[in-house]
Design a protein that fits this description.
349 residues, Topoisomerase I, Chain A, domain 3, Topoisomerase I, Chain A, domain 4, 3 domains, three-stranded antiparallel sheet, 11 helices, 43% helix
């Protein structure tokens, strides 16, 4: 396999100009590209027609293949498939480190949630507890203002209602999709009830007391807190990624009886990805490529699942606690690490 070469989009490359229903491509000297093989490669990159100021790498082995500006004015990048694969592998290796520190992270946030009043650590502890349970995107202030769609950091008080012992989040998420999620976690409920009742401060749900003033929680505050309590370069998104991997592992384990052939296993994987994508609010393609550790599918094709741990779902879990945490997560770690002697793993007959 040819080696990839690092390239810089500020250097010479191909450009494109609209022609009829498609595009014509030109090299750095302004000469039209007419080599058939090169044109096939450029078209295969799938550069969105709406992108402007497009730069395309003239080297088929460049790690960065194309750059452009989308309709929202954001710079977008298309990387070489090999480069993306390497980055994804590193990301999922990083996920295993994240999974190992999660129990300590949960213990720390629980301690912070016991603090009096509404200091920074308590409200950020709530934020992480919700990220860990609710598959929330973190959200950014600019995105909320521009698109009227929200994530955890930009959630407004009006998006949250409390009914009996249940907290219900009902809001517009990314891409304009309505999302409803609820929890009966009594610890979160108590803090959220207090935050909703506060009379001073703005409309945001998440805010902490700094002296006599309230400060809204920003996405950067949450990510800084995640790094502090994890002791490494982790972010809010890691909670969604890990949860997606766990949910996919459970879904495939439930499909054991229907996985008698290679074709049946492929169908089971497709179903599992669709289910997880529904939880995340992503497309199945994005969910599979960016959220679920591919080793879960590799193990499934090899006949291994966490079916041995399914009987433990919900065991030893307090009221309001997610049933997929604890023993199920450890089973997923065993699965990905290939610990075939783990009692949590089961070989498909």
């Amino acid at each position: 396999m040819p080696r990839l070469r690092r390239v810089d989009c500020s250097g010479p490359g191909f450009t494109r100009k609209r022609q009829g229903r498609g595009f014509a491509y030109f090299d750095a000297q302004g000469q039209r590209v007419d080599d058939g093989e090169t044109i096939v490669r450029l078209k295969a990159l799938g550069i969105p027609p709406a992108w402007k100021d497009v730069w395309i790498c003239s080297d088929a082995q460049g790690h960065l293949q194309a750059v452009g500006t989308d309709d929202a004015g954001r710079k977008q990048y298309i990387y070489h498939e090999q480069w993306r694969a390497r980055r994804e592998q590193k990301k999922f290796d990083h996920m295993m480190e994240f999974a190992e520190v999660l129990p300590a992270v949960r213990a720390t946030t629980l301690e912070h949630l016991q603090l009096e009043g509404y200091p920074r650590e308590k409200v950020l502890g709530l934020s992480v507890r919700l990220l860990d349970r609710g598959l929330f995107r973190i959200g950014t202030e600019g995105y909320a203002e521009q698109n009227q769609s929200y994530g955890l950091a930009t959630m407004l008080k009006r998006h949250v209602t409390i009914k009996d012992n249940e907290v219900i989040f009902d809001y517009v998420a990314k891409s304009g999709k309505r999302r409803i999620w609820s929890t009966m976690d009594p610890i979160s409920l108590e803090v959220i009830r207090g935050l909703k009742k506060r009379r001073s401060g703005g409309p945001d749900l998440l805010a902490y007391k700094d002296g006599l003033s309230w400060r809204d929680v920003k996405s950067s505050d949450i990510n800084d807190y995640v790094r502090e309590i994890c002791g490494g370069e982790f972010t809010a998104k890691d909670f969604r990624t890990w949860s997606a991997t766990v949910l996919a592992s459970v879904a495939l384990s439930v499909s054991v009886q229907a996985a008698s052939s290679k074709t049946a296993r492929k169908r089971a994987i497709t179903r599992a990805v669709k289910e997880v994508a529904e939880y995340l609010g992503n497309t199945p393609a994005v969910c599979r490529a960016s959220y679920i550790d591919p080793r879960v599918f590799d193990r499934y094709h090899s006949g291994w699942t966490i079916a041995g741990a399914l009987a433990e779902i919900g065991e030893g879990i307090d009221f309001g606690e997610p049933s997929t945490q604890g023993a199920i997560e450890q089973a997923v770690i065993d699965l990905i690490d290939g610990r075939k002697t783990s009692p949590a793993l089961e070989k498909i007959a």
